[in-house]
Amino acid sequence: MAVGTIDSREEMLSPEELHARLRRVGEERYHHQHPFHLLMHEGKLSRGQLQAWALNRYYYQSNIPVKDAIILSRSDDPEFRRAWRKRVVDHDGNAQQAGGIERWIRLAEATGLTRERVISCNEVLPAVRYAVDAYLSLVRSKTFLEAVASSLTEMFSRDLIALRMDRMRQHYPWLSGGLDYFTARLDQAPEDARFALQWVTEHARTRAEQELSIAALRAKCDILWAQLDAIYFSYVQPGWPPPGAFRIEEK
Amino acid sequence: MAVGTIDSREEMLSPEELHARLRRVGEERYHHQHPFHLLMHEGKLSRGQLQAWALNRYYYQSNIPVKDAIILSRSDDPEFRRAWRKRVVDHDGNAQQAGGIERWIRLAEATGLTRERVISCNEVLPAVRYAVDAYLSLVRSKTFLEAVASSLTEMFSRDLIALRMDRMRQHYPWLSGGLDYFTARLDQAPEDARFALQWVTEHARTRAEQELSIAALRAKCDILWAQLDAIYFSYVQPGWPPPGAFRIEEK
Question: Would residue A83 count as lying in a domain?
């Protein structure tokens, strides 16, 4: 990710300015604007297209706790680790309740896919795999600040999820039984976002570090966007999945 | 990359059988079949679309000697390293002649782009970047045998390059001055492919290793294919480059 050279004498952004810059990245680049989501929310996707989305996005969902475990492993601060490990629990679940991965599988099952087919990841688009792997690579190899800042997309996810749940119930009522994943995220995501935003605000101690944080959020938006581009290309227009990937069943 | 479980008692493939399996991967998955290349060879791409291709593919081209240096760094055999280092020289050049990267820049310049714009990689599609980075990750983290086998796409490149040069001269005569990259590859690629094929044939010593080699070639084909999918999606149909990426200039 190319980042503009920052004059070290340039002034730090105030917390308010930093937050405004981060929010602008979200407005411009978060995937709530992606044409695939627009079609979804207008009720224009077929069951097969929703299957393709659920199956491919499973690769992302199932790697979220891996990503968070990498971040955990890079922190030398027990307090940070205690706060962050919640994310691993949220997605992997515990003895009392299913986690986000299990709930995503149930969503995929509600589209008509079998659990085994989803979990195998055999039919995931290579481009989706590369984008998700790029996310793991980012949190592993960039600075710790950038790794944490890349999670700030959670700042924007609550609104998207609320809209999505509303439109899914309206346009795809047969999917309504599979929406528990989103219900849980309505509370989890804002809590995670608050923590991460406060942490980044406190730990970006130079203007250059603030700019790196903003660039990391942009990079994460690109990763989400690229997944939907690949799904759109393969399953909407022109509709050409690459050799070996999931194909929508002909009716 | 999911690979079918191999029964360890299953018989080794003969060299002829192994080569036939590898060739079949090429027939089914190599990017000579990709719709973007078909349009290119039919003369149906605009100058702007060729610019998008040259600019994006530069990210791949410029990482080839990095990929080969990773492979060099993983070999403990001076004889192998002496043979393989030719690839780094071919792409990086020497005092006597320009290498493949420089020749690719000249091709991009022939499409009307400036050298600086190409080299900066600022406008490369994120999806192209993820695919190329997945290639570096493959040669870094998979077995050495798989790293070498992933280069076997060279087995198929001579035919594609010969066809491309012919069609480019026919359909895009204004590009003819920029084809030196391909001229050089006509001899380099088959020589590289012969060495790698012989090495893989000798060093895949179980059926499971033979299957891993075949899967590595398939994985590399997916990486090439995904780059063209991203270019097609952004610059042909529907023609939606993601935020921040290269945009074709309106005439």
Answer: yes
Averaged pLDDT, B220-227? 98
- pLDDT of B6 over the 70 cut: no
Count of domains for chain B: 1
What does DSSP assign to residue B153? G
Neighbours of A143 (CB within 10 A): 13
Query: What is the nearest CA distance from A18 to chain B, expressed in angstroms?
Result: 20
A242/B225 touch (CB, cutoff 8 Å), yes or no? yes
What pLDDT, on the 0 to 100 scale, is given for residue A6? 54
Whether a cis peptide bond, with omega within 30° of 0, leads into A238 is yes
- In the block, residue with structure tokens 């870094």: B140
Considering the domain boundaries, does residue B240 fall inside one? no
DSSP A248: P
Q: Do B129 and A131 touch (CB under 8 A)?
A: no
Domain containing residue A43? 29-235
Question: What one-character DSSP code corresponds to residue B172?
Answer: -
Q: What is the pTM of this model?
A: 0.91
Give me the count of residues in chain B. 251
For residues B133 and A130, the answer to whether their CB atoms sit within 8 Å is yes
Domain harbouring B55, CATH code:
1.20.910.10
Is residue A9 domain-resident?
no
